[in-house]
Write a structure and sequence with these properties.
Elements: H1 3-10, E1 13-14, H2 19-24, H3 44-47, H4 49-62, E2 66-68, H5 76-79, H6 88-104, E3 114-119, H7 133-149, E4 154-160, H8 163-180, E5 186-190, H9 204-212, E6 218-222, H10 227-240, E7 244-248, E8 255-257, E9 260-262, H11 267-281, E10 285-286, H12 294-306, E11 326-328, E12 333-335, E13 343-350, H13 355-363, H14 366-379, E14 383-387, H15 395-409, E15 414-417, H16 421-428, E16 436-440, H17 447-459, E17 462-466, E18 468-469, E19 472-473, H18 477-494, E20 502-505, H19 521-535, E21 540-544, H20 554-571, E22 575-578, H21 591-601, H22 620-627, H23 645-655, H24 661-671, H25 674-694, H26 700-717, E23 731-736, H27 744-754, E24 759-762, H28 769-778, E25 783-787, H29 791-806, E26 813-816, H30 822-832, E27 838-840, H31 844-856, H32 859-871, H33 885-889, H34 894-906, E28 917-923, H35 926-929, H36 935-942, H37 952-962, H38 964-976, E29 983-994, E30 997-1001, E31 1008-1013, E32 1038-1046, H39 1049-1060, H40 1064-1093, H41 1103-1106, E33 1114-1116, H42 1129-1136, E34 1144-1145, E35 1151-1152, E36 1156-1162
Parallel strand pairs: 1-10, 2-3, 3-4, 4-5, 5-6, 6-7, 7-10, 13-14, 13-22, 14-15, 15-16, 16-17, 17-20, 20-21, 21-22, 23-24, 23-25, 25-26, 26-27
Antiparallel strand pairs: 8-9, 8-28, 11-12, 18-19, 28-29, 29-30, 29-32, 30-31, 32-36, 33-36, 34-35
């Protein structure tokens, strides 16, 4: 073990910070200092070694134990972009020497310091096809050889975005250290983006699984994000990774502030986060990445020193970790030992065993080959066996074509199945995950097996080992075990393969030939499985299961395979190569069939058999052949479209299926008029959609998909239709009321009514009652619908009804919106309308039901029935918008309140903000906001996906599989089309409480800037937000944060455009995402405020919990009970200068753009949400 590894066993070590950041702050000339090689920091090793040495010295003086060489872009491939590839070795060698010179320049002391040879990811990723593996490994070997010559103490393969690139770097490092004669440790740091994965899509478990198989010494995270975003992944490493762990975060997520790129996390706050990682997760190496400076490293040094009384560095915290032996795809980890299941290896991508796959291979239909793989994953296969061996074809080329596609398109790991070494090597050089080599054996002696094990160790693969030796295939227990022991010794003891990665296949042979010699073969295999499981319990045991039934009809084979599978599992088998969908659950196999098959497996004939007729003539094989003689194997059910075009069209509407829709409409027009098709066939489908939605069997996004199909069908039929009156079931005027900009609910009503045969006049948002009345009269409306989200809108609706009565209107009115209650509509609003014909519509389909009543002339009866039903129910004294008597009558004792404020303030110090007044965040990348997205609110509240009987955990799992991909695609669309523009203004003011008011002061602490008057709870010791600030008479000023965020007006404009273009589903998705992204931006800025005030490090590391107020203090938005006066936002916007990010106050005190939100931010630990 090298010195650095010894030191890591004893102490937590401190690495340095960003090299690039320090280069940028120096006034260097491109021509003289960079030799004309702009952006090539590595050239400074040649041109300005003094600059590089000085930067190292700055970090060493700040306290670094480890310094990284200036070689992030030091591979020949990257240096070739600057015509420096021929100097790669020398540049890397000099970098190592310069780092050592900086250490030597400090003079002798007792503190050990080490040089880490930095190896960056380069600009080309092999998993994305940018470069082939061999060329990458060759180039990285040159870089590592230079670093080894420069006497580095460890290789640090950092900022890794692709596990295949890491394999090339690790293997390059191994070659270099072998050539150097020194045992140089290999450290790896992966970069997990805000999406939760590496750039190519690997999660931390997949990356760790692939890298563990390479035998690296340390794994950690660096770059891309700040420490908070790393928290979940660091925790996973702490609980699972068996080696050393390193963490080097950026100084937060970069932002554009006042025109400059800014990393927001200061030294003290970053140090507190790293302290959590050391204390809670047992991290061994901490340091900084982008945006960190010697000041950060100095704060980290002080933090580590303060953690121990004995030495300058604390001992690593002992971790209770548990490594789970697994394989991995490029994306995710798959454990060998499945919980309540067996390890299923799909067999249908094998040209030797699947005629369909072989035909597709021969036709070079690569996409169809991949589709077979995907289908197996859907059926439940954990991994896929891939074999392209086919007479007359180039196996290497075919394997390359298949694996290069499957690695990105299939989320299950691959089993590379070939007898040819070049095929295995080519496939493994394409695969970033941890694959399985199928297989090794001793048929031709040990040399072929040795070469395959060398491949497995080089690429980090597991190995299937067949019990075959020079004498042939083992058929009895003794020979199977003899060869298995030899294989174990050869693979594990001689070649260092972990026993968990050795997968024995003790072979199974058909027992369906009728030959006497074959009858015991399955029984011998079961005995071998049992013996292997006892003698070598860490190894895996698999079978090519279907061989056991070879020779019989498919129906019989399915039953034999299923029964044999059950007995093999009982014996200790851990997995099987099998067609998963052809394995029947054991308990579903008819007992008579099961008994006959068991007699066949255990060779029980005549009277000994339990499934026969009790005679000496009973032979289970012959009995099975007779039993299945006329039976066909069950085929997978395929969805077949109805034969009749009328039913097909109806089904298309229900399914939202537009593929070949026009052809069906053309066929229908041969027999029916276009009007009949719309009113009788298509609307029939929409009726079914409504019924399915109402019963909870259909989710809202798919309702909108049906509406899009309906709209497309009507649009196609319109040119063939005669314009005539009476084609509409009725007309409704829809509007969002004055002062309210929320239109999603109204627009959903528009979509559903329009596609169910009604004419909708959609007036839009912020509509005065005069416009609504005018439109109702002009269009001879059968009904008026009013919508609004705000509490204030409910009052405006009631006033509108009074005005409509004054103007002589008596058409039925439908009211909807989040702030409404049924009681308020049916009592208060109904009383304000002359005819009383007012109904509450809780959603779009409720509105459709109301319009049906109006169309059929039964609306008045419906309203009367609803009123009678309500009258029969017990009443609450609380009325919408009205204060309780207690809140009006209760006196307030402000002396008592001041005393309580003093008590609350006693143990809570006032934090020091980094500035007073307001700043603007001009741009935040959308990816940075994704971790702050409240996915539950997005999927359920905005997109309308229902739990449908699932509990919380079940829904979360379902949403992760079904909803998250929609979210990710919509985020990508927003990035690609520049739809959302997250911006913010925020700042800090001195503040105090006076009575129920919060008073904000200028920086002098005496000049009042503004004040907010807030309500107090009516109960005894009732709360008011002002209670969490120091009293104005206390002699000390508190600090208060203000913030306002937006995702921009363009989001609303694009949503409206999509709505107008009948992209209903996309419209729903975009609107909901925009709203929740604005909330995510508010969470992001609030976290920024907590960080700048010095306590974001105590946030809950689980983002779901953090979003549920898992942090200190609170953010109160205007319009909610504790601060209801939305007009106070005028003062907030003025103080923040919110117009700089395009946010203004509109009519009725609404923020514009629509998807914006503001808040006051309190730091007090006891400040939480409450209602008034």
């Amino acid at each position: 073990m090298s010195n650095i590894l010894d030191q890591l066993q004893r102490q937590v070590l401190l690495c340095d910070g960003a090299m690039g950041t320090q280069v940028q702050v120096r006034d260097l000339d491109i021509d003289s200092d960079f030799m004309g090689k702009e952006n090539c920091t590595e050239v400074l090793n040649l041109s300005r070694p003094d600059v590089v040495r000085d930067i190292h010295t700055d970090y060493l003086k700040a306290g670094s134990d480890l310094i990284q060489t200036n070689t992030f872009g030091g591979s020949p491939l990257t240096l070739a972009e600057f015509d420096l590839e021929d100097q790669a070795f020398e540049i890397n060698r000099l970098a190592g020497e310069l780092a050592h010179e900086a250490i030597d320049g400090l003079g002798p002391d007792s503190k050990p310091r080490f040089v880490m040879g930095a190896i960056g990811p380069g600009t080309r990723l092999p998993s994305l096809g940018h470069i082939d593996y061999a060329a990458l490994e060759t180039a990285l070997t040159v870089q590592c050889e230079g670093l080894a010559a420069g006497r580095v103490d460890a290789f640090l393969i950092e900022t890794c975005q692709d596990t295949l690139q890491i394999k090339a770097a690790v293997n390059g490092a191994k070659k270099a250290r072998l050539a150097s004669g020194r045992d140089i440790p290999i450290f790896v740091q992966v970069t997990v983006e805000t999406t939760g994965t590496l750039l190519v899509g690997s999660d931390i478990a997949a990356a760790a699984t692939s890298l563990h198989a390479l035998g690296i010494d340390s794994l950690g995270l660096n770059c891309a994000t700040g420490p908070q975003e790393m928290g979940e992944h660091v925790k996973w490493l702490s609980e699972n990774w068996p080696g050393f762990i390193s963490v080097q975060p950026n100084a937060g997520l970069p932002e554009l502030v006042d025109g400059h790129t800014h990393y927001p996390l200061g030294p003290e706050e970053a140090a507190r986060w790293l302290e959590r990682f050391v204390r809670e997760d047992g991290v061994n190496i901490v340091g900084g990445c982008c945006g960190t400076t010697p000041k950060h490293i100095e704060a980290f040094d002080q933090m580590l020193s303060a953690m121990t009384d004995e030495e300058q560095r604390p001992k690593p915290v002992e971790r209770d970790h548990h490594w789970v032996p697994s394989v991995a795809s490029l994306y995710s980890q798959v454990p060998y030992r499945q919980e309540n299941a067996w390890f299923a290896i799909g067999e249908r991508c094998n040209a030797n065993g699947s005629r369909k796959f072989r035909d597709l291979l021969d036709a070079e239909d690569w996409d169809a080959c991949v589709a077979i793989g995907r289908d197996q994953v859907k059926e439940g296969s954990h991994t896929l066996d891939v074999c392209t061996a086919f007479v007359g074809r180039n196996e290497v080329r075919d394997m390359t074509e298949v694996v290069s596609r499957m690695r990105g398109a299939v989320h299950s790991p691959l089993v590379i199945d070939s007898t040819e070494l070049p095929v295995l090597e080519e496939a493994l050089a394409l695969y970033g995950g941890k694959a399985v080599i199928n297989s090794i054996n001793f048929e031709d002696g040990e040399e072929p097996a040795e070469k395959r094990l060398e491949l497995a160790r080089r690429f980090g693969a597991a190995v299937v080992a067949l019990t075959i030796d020079e004498e042939g295939m083992a058929k009895d227990l003794d020979s199977k075990m003899r060869i298995a022991r030899r294989l174990y010794d050869f693979a594990v003891n001689k070649h260092g393969l972990p026993p968990q990665d050795l997968m024995f296949d003790p072979l199974t042979f058909t027992i369906c030939t009728g030959n006497v010699d074959d009858r015991e073969l399955a029984l011998e295999t079961l005995k071998a499985i049992e013996a292997l499981a006892k003698e070598m319990p860490d190894c895996q045991i698999i079978l090519g299961l279907s061989n056991v039934s070879f020779g019989l009809k498919a129906a019989a084979r399915h039953v034999i395979n299923s029964v044999f599978m059950e007995h093999a599992l009982r014996a200790g088998m851990t997995g099987a190569i099998v067609h998963v969908s052809k394995i029947a659950p054991f308990h579903k196999i008819p007992e008579n069939e099961r008994l006959i098959v068991e007699d066949l497996i255990f060779n029980k004939r005549g009277k000994e058999g339990t499934g026969g007729d009790g005679t000496d003539d009973y032979d289970p094989l012959h009995t099975l052949i007779g039993l299945f003689e006329d039976r066909k194997a069950g085929a997978a059910a395929e969805k077949v479209r109805p034969a009749e075009v009328e039913e097909r069209l109806k089904q298309r509407i229900v399914d939202g299926d537009r593929q070949e829709l026009n052809e069906d409409l053309d066929e229908a027009m041969i027999k029916h008029t276009p009007l009949h098709i719309v009113n009788e066939l298509l609307l029939d489908g929409m009726k079914v959609v409504g019924e399915l939605f109402g019963s909870g069997q259909m989710q809202l996004p798919f309702v909108l998909q049906s509406a899009e199909t309906m709209k497309a069908a009507v649009a196609y039929l319109e040119p063939f239709m005669e314009k005539a009156d009476g084609q509409s079931k009725g007309t409704i005027v829809l509007a969002t009321v004055k002062g309210d900009v929320h239109d999603i609910g109204k627009n959903l009503v528009d979509i559903i009514l329009t596609n169910n045969g009604y004419r909708v006049v959609n007036l839009g948002i912020k509509q005065p009652i005069a416009h609504i009345i005018e439109a109702a009269k002009e269009n001879n409306a059968d009904a008026v619908g009013m919508s609004g989200l705000l509490v204030k809108s409910t009052v405006i609706m009631r006033e509108n009804l009074t005005e409509m009565t004054r103007e002589g209107l008596d058409v039925p009115v439908l009211l909807g919106g989040a702030a409404l209650t049924r009681r308020y509509v049916e009592e208060d609003c109904s009383e304000s309308y002359g005819s009383g014909h007012v109904a509450y519509a809780k959603d779009a389909f409720d509105g459709l039901g109301m319009m049906k009543h109006i169309n059929e002339g039964t609306f008045a009866d419906h309203v009367k029935s609803a009123n009678e039903e309500r009258a029969a129910k017990p009443k609450s004294s609380k009325r919408l918008g009205a204060p309780s008597e207690e809140s009006i009558m209760r006196p307030v004792d402000f002396d008592e309140i001041r005393t309580r404020r003093d008590e609350l303030a006693r143990d809570v110090s006032v934090p020091n903000p980094p500035f007073w007044g307001a700043k603007v965040i001009e741009k935040v990348e959308l990816e940075a906001l994704v971790p702050f997205l409240n996915e539950t609110m997005l999927y359920q509240f905005h997109w309308g996906f229902r739990k449908a009987g699932r509990d919380r955990d079940q829904f979360r799992s379902w949403a992760e599989e079904n909803c998250r991909p929609i979210m990710q695609n919509m985020v990508k669309t927003c990035i690609d089309e520049n739809i959302l523009h997250p911006q913010a203004a925020y700042g800090y003011w001195k503040a105090a409480a006076e009575g129920n008011d919060i008073v904000l002061f200028n920086e002098d602490g005496t000049t009042e800037a503004t004040r907010f008057s807030l309500p107090r709870q009516s109960r005894e010791n009732g709360l008011c937000i002002s209670d969490f600030l120091r009293d104005v008479d206390s002699g000390e000023r508190d600090v208060l944060g203000l913030q306002v965020v937006t995702v921009g007006q363009h989001a609303s404009e694009v949503a409206r455009e999509w709505f107008d273009n009948d992209r209903y589903q996309d419209y729903l998705y975009l609107h909901g995402l925009g709203v929740e992204m604005a909330e995510a931006m508010a969470e992001y800025v609030h976290k920024r405020i907590r960080g700048e005030l010095g306590f974001s490090h105590i946030d809950d590391r689980n983002m779901v919990s953090m979003l549920k107020q898992g942090y200190q203090g609170s953010r109160y938005s205007f319009g909610y009970p504790a601060c209801p006066n939305i007009a106070d936002q005028h003062a907030l916007l003025d103080l923040l200068g919110a117009d700089r990010v395009g946010i203004v106050m509109g009519d009725e005190d609404q923020l514009h753009p629509e998807q914006s939100t503001s808040a006051i931010v309190l730091h007090h630990p006891q400040a939480k949400y409450f209602s008034v």
